[in-house]
């Protein structure tokens, strides 16, 4: 029997800047364009989980538990941050949405109880989103 998938949506605002400190401003501009300057996004984060339905509650996850995990381990860290400078994980990584979804997965996955993290979807703009299904 197939298991249902549940998605919870979260929002946060954060800024970042692409580039390499060892490159000149011109080279950073040539490679990253305007994104070589500090800029921000209003992110929409979708966290999708799957698991067996609890017979007593009818749910696959306690949404309060999921919200606490995401708030503590993702939103409280990233919201209103310059995350490429403030989050150690990004020290040697570009602050792309591709890297950000991996970071978010790693922040959530170890804390879930009784449910499996299936997908992280991060909307960076209305027309760009990145999906990650774990390692």
Task: Please specify the SSE layout and strand pairing.
Layout: E1 5-16, H1 25-32, E2 39-50, H2 63-78, E3 81-82, H3 83-86, H4 97-108, E4 116-125, E5 128-132
Parallel strand pairs: 1-3
Antiparallel strand pairs: 1-2, 2-4, 4-5
Notes on the protein architecture:
The protein has four helices and five strands, in the order E-H-E-H-E-H-H-E-E. It has 135 residues and is an alpha+beta fold. It has one domain (5-132): 6-pyruvoyl tetrahydropterin synthase/QueD (Tetrahydropterin Synthase, Chain A). Strand 4 and strand 5 (128-132) form a beta hairpin.
Structural key phrases:
five-stranded mixed beta sheet; 135 residues; single chain; Tetrahydropterin Synthase, Chain A; alpha+beta; 4 helices; elongated
Please give a quick description of this structure.
The protein is an alpha+beta fold. It has helices spanning 25-32, 63-78, 83-86, 97-108; strands spanning 5-16, 39-50, 81-82, 116-125, 128-132.
CATH domain class: Alpha Beta
- What CATH architecture label applies? 2-Layer Sandwich
Give the % helix: 25-40%
Low-confidence stretches: none
Average pLDDT over all residues = 96
The assigned structural class equals alpha+beta
E-strand count:
5
Instruction: Please name the CATH topology.
Output: Tetrahydropterin Synthase, Chain A
Radius of gyration: 17 Å
Order of helices and strands: EHEHEHHEE
Fourth CATH level, the homologous superfamily: 6-pyruvoyl tetrahydropterin synthase/QueD
Could you give the order of strands across the largest sheet?
A: 3-1-2-4-5
The coarse overall form would be elongated
Question: What characterizes the major β-sheet?
Answer: 5 strands, mixed
User: How many domains would you count in the coordinates?
Assistant: 1
Number of H/I helices? 4
